[in-house]
Amino acid sequence: MHDMASTTGQQPQPLSLREHKKRQAQAIIEETALRLFQQQGYEQTSIQDIANAVQMSSRTFFRYFASKEEVLFTPMRAILSAGMSTLQQVAPGESPHAALRTIMLSLAELYQQQRTSFLIRYRVAMQIPSIASIYLYTQMAVEPAICDALSSRLESATDPHRVRFLVAIYMTALRVALQDWLDDEVQGDLISLLHGYMDPLSSTDQWQQGGEDQQ
C-alpha cells in the first residue's frame, strides 16, 4: 500500500494520519493473507486464521476487508479504477484507438509496478475455478464504465455499439498480455507484450472508414 493517494496523471495528495494507519493495517493483512494462501491454500485459510496471524479479532478484520475475496482482488480493482482516471488525459474528440491505447498502457504500467504481488494473487486465483472466474470477471467488469466515459469524450457521431466492441478488443489484448506475462513468471516487460497485441489493431482511419462503409 502507499502513503500518498494518487491517480494516473495527477499529483499525489498526502494522506491523513487516519487513512495512513488504515492503509498500513490493510497492507499487513494482505501480506499475511497471501502468505497463508500460499502455505495452506485459499480455501483452507479462514478469516480467523488471517486475523490470528496479524493479532487482531475477526471483527477488527472486517473493518478493513469484507471477505477473503476482497483481500485477494482489491488491488486489481484499485488499478482498474486508477486506469479510468487516465481518460482525463484524453482530449475531447480523440480517436477511440488512441484513447484506449493510453488507458491500456497505463494499466499495464500499474500492474508491472506490483508484479510480485500480482503473480502471487494470480497463482492463488487460478488454483480454484470459482475464484478464477471472479478474477476474470473483475477484469471484465470495468468495460461498461470505460465505454461510458470514453463515449462522453468522443465525437457525438461515434456509434456507441462500435465503441463497446473496440473497448472489448483492447481489454482482451490487455488480458491476454497479462496472462502471458504472469504465466511466464512476470519475466520480461508487460508493456512490450501489450504493444505486440495492440499494434496490429486497426488504425483510426480504418475504423472510421469501416463505419462509413456500413452506413
TrEMBL record:
Gene3D superfamilies: Homeodomain-like, Tetracycline Repressor, domain 2
Keyword Transcription regulation: yes
Membrane-crossing segments per the record: none
Matching InterPro entries: Homeodomain-like_sf, HTH-type_TetR-like_transc_reg, HTH_TetR, MftR_C
DNA-binding interval(s): 46-65
UniProt region (Disordered), positions on chain: 1-22
UniProt KW Transcription keyword: yes
Keyword tags: DNA-binding, Transcription, Transcription regulation
Domain HTH tetR-type, chain residue ranges per copy: 23-83
Pfam family, one: TetR_N
Polar residues: bias regions: 1-14
Highest taxon listed in the record's lineage: Bacteria
PANTHER family assigned to the protein according to its UniProt record, in alphabetical order: HTH-TYPE TRANSCRIPTIONAL REGULATOR RUTR (PTHR30055), MYCOFACTOCIN BIOSYNTHESIS TRANSCRIPTIONAL REGULATOR MFTR-RELATED (PTHR30055:SF238)
Protein name: TetR family transcriptional regulator
